Amino acid sequence: MQLYTLRNQLNIDLEGSLAELAEIGYTRVEHAGFVGRTAAQFRAALNNAGLRATSGHVGIPQPFDAEIWKRALEDSAIVGNKFIVHPYFGAGPTGPIRDAAVYRAFARDLNRAGELARRAGLSFGYHNHQNEFFRQSGTNVTGFDILTGDTDPRLVHLEVDLFWAFRGASDPVDLIKKHRGRIKQVHVKDLNENGSFADPGAGLIDFGRIFERSREAGLVEYIVERDDAGSPPRTPADALVTARVGYDYLAGLRF
Questions:
Q1: In which band, very low, low, confident or very high, does the pLDDT at 128 lie, cut at 50, 70 and 90?
Q2: C-alpha dihedral over 96, 98, 102, 103, to 10 degrees?
Q3: Are strands 157-161 and 91-92 parallel, antiparallel or unpaired?
């Protein structure tokens, strides 16, 4: 479970919400911050619920600062992460970035972050949205092409957000074919008929078709997420409904 889905509910009741995730059947989560706790306090809350945070979303500093990043890696070790993932890139002050040089500079920073993560015993990944699939500098090369081509696969794996890939007009099956063995994680987030979010299994994405290629992709973690799960007009507690629907859907999916 990506805890960003439950961000509003966690602020209301961290311990109770984690316990409910465990009751649903989850054993692992991906955090997106520590909900106002220290890394040690957050780890204690997870332990009390019987959960492990095997992954976490942590943005690399911009401009890149190795010392700040090392402190983030230390927190990840305290929490017990195996994966640490940069969550967002591709938007400038006036809209999507369309300058290849900006992407190439960021790819260099991803390599630097990935090397430090490797030394710390962590696997560093990059999580996409839709902006990366815009073509850059008037060419046919997309931002995603640059980020994947200019980073070392040994240092930067991919966490493909299936919803945002579709929104960026990229078929995840094609991404798997192109990046065999590099996609260690996916966000299982569904797309409704209006182009917005849906609970996993309730929308238009054929996840079974994608997951038939799990071995080819290199998949280790399937992470349930819905960006608006607890935001108005939904209530914070509705995010726990999404958590249950997503768990039940993946538990019953055959591919």
A1: very high
A2: 90
A3: unpaired
Residue 121: predicted pLDDT? 98
Which residues 6+ apart lie within 8 Å of 250 measured at CB?
A: 188, 200, 222, 224
Task: Show the tokens assigned to 239.
Answer: 């995010």
- Claim: this prediction has a pTM higher than 0.85: yes
Instruction: Name, in order, each residue with C-beta under 8 angstroms of 200's C-beta and a sequence gap of 6 or more.
Output: 188, 189, 190, 207, 224, 226, 242, 245, 246, 249, 250
Mean pLDDT score, 23-52:
98
CA distance 13 to 150: 42
Angle at 4 between CA 133 and CA 157, to 5 degrees: 45
The 3-state DSSP class for residue 217 equals helix
How far apart CA 215 and CA 136 sit, in angstroms, is 31
Q: Give the three-state DSSP class for 23.
A: helix
CA distance 103 to 54: 28
